[in-house]
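Collaborator request log, item 7. Partner lab (contact: R.S.) asked for a structural prediction of GH18 domain-containing protein to inform their binding assays.
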Amino acid sequence: MMVQKILIFLLLCFLSTVISDYVRGCYFSDWAHYRPDKGRYEPEMYIPGTCTHIFFAFAKVNDDFTAGAYDDEDTDSGPNGGYYKRVNNLKSQQPGLITILSFGGWSAGTDTFKKLAADEGHRQTFINSALQFINHYGFDGIDIDWEYPKGDDYNNYVTLLKELKQADNSKLLTAAVTADAETVDEGYNVKEMAKHLDYVNVMTYDFHGDWEQQTGKLF
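Returned to partner:
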């Protein structure tokens, strides 16, 4: 009986460790507050405990390869208090909540990222600026959503991630990547990228869209 109790105790300890390490990432979009009626979503509507990590979508890479906001509403000067700050204020309601600022997105395209990753000077400009940017607003890490690398980007992307991680290993570094096998083969050196990333977000939601005739359960 004693052995059984010990085994059950050890199993519960193991499960508690697994659960605590589970990542439940949620994207908060900077256009969520522009939606009408019930579609509108504000940071203060967040229910503590829903997510372990919040990814703020999106920040941008400026033409001079510095980090910037897509919308003035996101910054401290925003008339509604700044969405970067308001999202990070959620940490006071949920200790341990991790916030990550995502750079790029579908509308960002690939040209700026391509130029950025290919040039050492551009990479250093972005890395220094991005780290200052997230530190200023209180984010815990950087997410790169480059849609999509290919050709010479295959290895240049790895270099960007490597240098970004080396610049400040205390910050989380993640990437949002396609789930399309052909695009992966063309643009992602998966083995090398994995050496520098803490998490990878696979965009499997792109398999579905408004072209479908029916919806189904998400579980």
